[in-house]
Queue: 2 jobs
Job 1
Amino acid sequence: MKVASGKWLRARAPLCGALALGALGLTGCGDKESSPDAVSVSELKYPGDLAIWDKGDGKVVLEWSGANNEEDFDGYNVYGMKGTATALGVTEGVALELLDDKGDKNTTTEAILAKFNYDPATTKLEAPGTAIALAETAEADSDAPEFSYLPIHTGPADARLLPTCKAAGGTCTMTTAATKDLTAENPTYAVNGRVKFEVPETLKVGESYCFFVMSSMDGGETVSQTSSNVQCVTPKYSVGFNLPIPAGADDPRHLDLRAYLTACDAAGKCAAPGAPVLDAAAESEFNPSAKNSHTASDPMPIYIETSTTGAVGFVAGKAAAVNDLGYYEKGFDDVTLPKGAPVLVLDDSTIGGTGVNKDAPVFNAGGYSIPGQTVPLVAGHVYVFGVGAATASGIGPFHYHWLYVKSAPAGGNAAVEMRLTKKAI
Amino acid sequence: MKALSKAALTIGTLGLVIAACDSGSSSDPATVSRDALNPPSGLYTVTNHNSLELRWKAANAEDEFKGFHVFAVKGSTATLAAVAPTFPKQIVPAPTLTTGSFPRCLDNTKLFEAFGFAATDSDCEGDAEAPAATTGAASTAFLQEPAATPAIEEKLENFIPCKENTANPNLSLPGVAPLLTLQTCTITQYFDPTSKKRLDMKDGETYTVFVSAVAGDELSDISWTSNFVSDTPSTRLFEGTLSLKVGEAVRLPVADIVDFTKTVTALPAAALCSDVDPDTTDANNNGQVCRINRFNKSAADGLWFGRLGTGEFPQRMFFSTVAGGDVSLALRGPQTQDPKNPNIISVSIPSDQAAAADVAYVADGTHFPIYGNQVFDLKVKKAGATHYGKVVFYSAEPLPANASDPISLKVAIVMQPAAGVRDYLQ
């Protein structure tokens, strides 16, 4: 197979000088060849602090920190593949090392890289591809590359461009024929800070994908021997709609997130919810005399209530809880928004003495409301709804759904965006 | 004078070639290229009482890397805009003081003079010497030879020593530092170019800081700068433990919030919770659920902390301000989680600026439920000006076995005395 001649492969032995620099105490040298070549941090600094932004409906953005002023630095190689961390053999938050303590090929990492082999001609990020970079010399046997598995890249099979992306102004964009030769010798392409990269593929909602990044030199042929930390993401559904705000205390609404998720799964995407998912709420089973006093006994996961004084809030019902994450100027795009939902704590022993919360023994630790507790609905805030499975016990694995209140209620509605999690935890 | 020349300096015998300047010394380090010595990045500050905590990302694996120098002067990045650097020019988009990294060279002389560096005649392209652009008064302020054998920092009048850190980042990183790790340094002084001395920081005054990496046995090489950051130290108004029984409330009056000279040792008791919203009844509040769905319509303005309900759910505390009062709130949620100590709450919040948008602040008397591990921004009016601050609720205390017993929660209240400044403090 002919692969990216001059872009991915080269025959050389670059490790001696780099590894013997002392920074890592590596001493391994010889005639080994690698594809890509792995060089030590003294020669090429590796990226770190990789985080993943779930933009909804399968679109994700990677963001990492870089400190690459090396004159030959020319971008980053991005690796990604469907699978859980366990299945892919990686550990979230931990970097991969291409070489072992002796400077030899790390066979464990090599096996992992094979699982991340990307081939746009076949299955892209859905399953490892078959494309394997070979040494560009004719003596393939003697010059077999050590790390010959392909990151995300552009171009047809015989003209793949690497590195994956060129970083400038905080954004890493896919390498093109016009940019392939740009390096940090031009300071515009040096990196000192955070870099964002939009993954070109659309991932599948509810499936797990893992990613990592390596710094590159020489058109993707030379990479940092240490990768960034590995991070995984399970994409969520995305939807925007107008949330009706009850006009008064006698007009509460419910949002049946369990039924809504079922409908989203059936359609493969979420449409704006209507009745009966988002509808007038039945009176409280526990407080039938007060329509806007839903409690842990009531079946719907989320109620929207307006009090007699006009205050509007979310109230969780059976096996559910609400967490107000606070104000975020840019909603789901805000850099300060947590990437994961806070941990929901169940602890029946500390919740009251009468056992009225037995259907959802949520403890406030972690910032979740107990069921029946009003959480003010405030414009600009992001909320997490912990929704447990409707099992006989009322407590099952939880789906964590996110809601951003984009604007203050007007005309009886508040514009909201949601991210719905297909996968229960 | 040190130029960014193409002179090659070989370190060790292993072939690492650093494009370096003319040789520097501890008394006047040479600015070296970013390739040769990576500058720190991502600098931000945490506001403290008469001091600032600096945090930045280290990205140094150079063989002779030694640590970092910290520089601070009075004034904001806005005031330094008049002496903003003009090199490098070719970066797209053009860097600013708060986002960029800059070398000490001819085009940037005035900026560095503001930090006590001597005027330089080094050409920024590193190819030629050029006449000094200025002969500023600070030309002799930078670096004084040691009288005896003092610590390195004592040699450098415009170099600010770090305080109160377990790991002094100045000189204590031998060889290779972990890449992209968070470094911290608390400083209590700034450099005054007029007196050419280090002076103590004061609450309410704004300072601008930056950090550079240093290398070489004599600390003879210094990197380009980090980004520049401004911050204003200030004081803490209150820190203590709330202890509330069912129906109890305490209130911090607005007069105390905007005093800026006092420290409150105890929050005064206020009217019972049942009186917070005197124009409504609790007819629907049957005691089975927490019904924090009223508005605080008290005539007594200030910060209200209370505990509603009958005790079946003893964790139901609230925090609110008065509808239409001079104080408004913005819940910032889990920003209390400090990345330096991710498992604990900290009032040292990175990027600790209050929310800028008016829409972030709630002024309708909403009662926010309090569980612990929460931070609120405050916006307070005083004499037509706006002051910012924050309220931090620490981790929840264990709940009492008996609902009639008080529950406790530690809280800190901090205010920025400088009007319009959104920095607030630890």
Job 2
Amino acid sequence: MSWLKSIARELISLFVDDGSFAMAILVWVVLAVSLLPRLAPAARWSGPALFAGLALILIESVVRFARRAK
Amino acid sequence: MGVGWGHPEVTRLGTTLVASFLASLVECVEALTVVLAVGSVRGWRSALAGAGTALGTLAAIVAVLGPALTRIPVNKLRQIPFHLVQFVVGGLILLFGLRWLRKAVLRSAGLIPLHDEQTAFAKSAAAMRQANAGSNARWDNFAFSAAFNITMLEGTEVVFIVIAFGAGGVGLLLPASLGALAALVMVSALGFLLHRPLARIPENTLKFLVGVLLSALGTFWVGESVGLAWPVPHSGSSDLAILGLIALYLVLALGLVPVCRLQARIVAEEI
């Protein structure tokens, strides 16, 4: 049964290895899907706005990692 | 009439097939490395039996669960809003893809070590040598369970990848399955022919590309699930936005590599 535990651990690690990075993505996705359709449902920038937030999260995460790396 | 990558249906099916193939390729290569280490140190009979049993178990699970899913009454399925499925699957793919992309950027910038199949092979082989034999000449339980575990582990990830891609839209399960199957056949054939780890497969480049593809698909599906709009031509399908997202993520990730190197250098000079 140890492989079951390993598989569960591996499945979680498929999505999360930096907790704050995963949390930031989830928070932005929830915010974006809650707010963007209400702010401007038909606006052509609502999709790109979702991307822009995710791009900023990726930039912040890798730059933070680079600044901590020795 | 010619149908190219610009055609929305081809974009959707093609992206799913390629992403599933590349993601499965990475998992299959990692499993092959350990099975080769087990086989070369402890003997091929138990190693291949372990890997084969795991593949058979996975096939049985898929064979039982697949038809069971299709037997769910359509009126029950209709009770689950499709946009909810698309949102959940898109969110999971987004987490998966951005995690791979982040790691691939950091690896390309030299901030975390590259995954090396030769090193992984040497480590696994050393572990196999150190372990007590606990076996007779014909059968090796340790080798069997080591090969079984790694094949089950990586195989379950491949099954998850296929299900996640397949659940993203109508008709996507077939290209997702074909992509994974092609990866399995290719890696098995290469492993059988070469008998050594596939160290020349550029795993980080693959993870970079898969990260880009998955992040684009995940972003698109999450956006589609709540009806966000994309700047595509009025006559075109919103599926065309996938190509734009792939290009944007690729440019972003490639641009982040030198930025990370620069940041690390600045911090090193400050110390």
